[in-house]
Amino acid sequence: MNKAALAPSRLAAPEPVLRVRGLVKRFGPGCAQCAQQTGDSAGTNRCPACGTIVALRGVGLDVGAGEVLGIVGESGSGKTTLLRCLSMDLGAEAGSVLLSGVGELLGRSGRVHRETRARELAIVHQDPFAAGMLPRLSAETNVAERLLTNGARTFEPLSRQASTMLARMEVAPGRHRDPLGTFSGGMRQRVQLARALVHRPRLLLLDEPTTGLDPSVQATVLSLIERAIDRVGAGTVLVTHDLGVVALLADRVVVMHHGEIVEEGVTDGVLEDPRHPYTRSLVASRLP
Amino acid sequence: MTATVAGLAREHAKAMPYAYLDERSKREVRRGLLKALALPGRQVPFASREMPVARGWGSGGLQLTLSLVGPDDVVKVIDQGDDASLNAAAMRELIARTAGVAVTTHTREATIVQSRHRVPEIPLRPDQLLVLQMPHPEPLRRVVPDPARAAQLHADGDAAPAWVELYDDEVRHGGPVGGADHPILVAGDTLASPSPIPRYDVLTLDRRPHPVLLGAGRLARITALPPWTSVRPLAFDDRPLAAESAGGPCERCGSERSYRVEAQRGAGIWRCSDVDACRERRTA
Prior knowledge:
A: 11 helices, B: alpha/beta, 2 domains
């Protein structure tokens, strides 16, 4: 595959919300041989000389406003590490992560990271409680939390905004004030979506948002995500194992293998005509 | 010469330093106080000493009072507004015996008022000091159980967890559910605990003409509100904090504006919590 022909700038919108270049993330001390002995061509992301895991090797991608970029790959391919670098949970050894309106994120102070996370970013996890939602607080409070963090101090408009967003996510008004711990898995995901989108983030990160939900609930949540992204217009990065979810939501898709992007393109094109052997095996393993 | 127990006790009493604590300990507390006054609302650590009261029973307030009291001071100690409680009486006695200072039950006569869980309702003058006993100095302790994370939030000036808790109280209960220790914002946005005083008292903390010193002996922290410091209760712009309401006027003085507590649960008899203020009203 000619990777140069699939350079991010060719596929993405002219002014991306997120621009990632040459991102390198290692877990371990690293050595001179790491670069040659890991990656897709080496067939491993673990350096045989020093044992370092090279989780990301020169990853680059762009995400435009309103665009959904799917990231697929097997477990250990670097998807979650990439998402954690984008959400500033992890630093990186090299590279650049530019967020429109903020600038470079790597190497910035904790304060910039906190403010960016609160104002410009939203993350939807598979487990709502991993996203910092609190089961003892009401659904409405969990949604309003982001606005409170951003300095909202007037109760009535805040309450209206949180309730409206919950209603958009089809959470019945009678349950807005119930503790989140009393909600089912699908309902918690709706609340998590409402919380993620209530402050209209610039960048939305979705980490396996429908994994673990039963198929009917999954379909509803996917439809809500689709509508919400259209409404908010956020650039979205979707990490999932499920090619069906990617086919439904993602405009473009990148395929990761051993810490590298091995294929990238418009979703339909990649799924219908995969070029890289790993992508072919991934598409072939998809259930009919 | 034969030593007797009484003789040894007399010798020991002579050896006791002025105001119980040795001078170095008092200096350390005063240094902490100066730092706390320079950083209104912040929790300043100090080397809290073992005291002859259990930690959590006023050992912090007692150390502040003993470090500040001079021979000419007049000390008043109250417990929930009352001079006669066992805890207040014991501490008053300890201060009087070890420092040899005068004590009083009249707020206007005192130069130092040490109080547990109440702010005296008789306004204090600029030359008076209010020392509040504070069991828990951390205003985020209910919402952020990890002290390291709470400290980081204070360092970042991030009071969001307290606002989230207040929001949840408003949503589910129509207002704050905590009966006491409602968080305050000091000198702008410094989140602090006012000690477990009722909301009635929290509303009186703004721009007081005298220093308010809060001591937590068990957790070894001092917080201070210098004179004229802005103190706002944590409350939404459109939901101001309301004081507690009583079921009736004080049965002794008839006041309907004081902070009153029920004398006997369910009996419908309400009395002023601040005994001295109530007495003044009756004798006026």
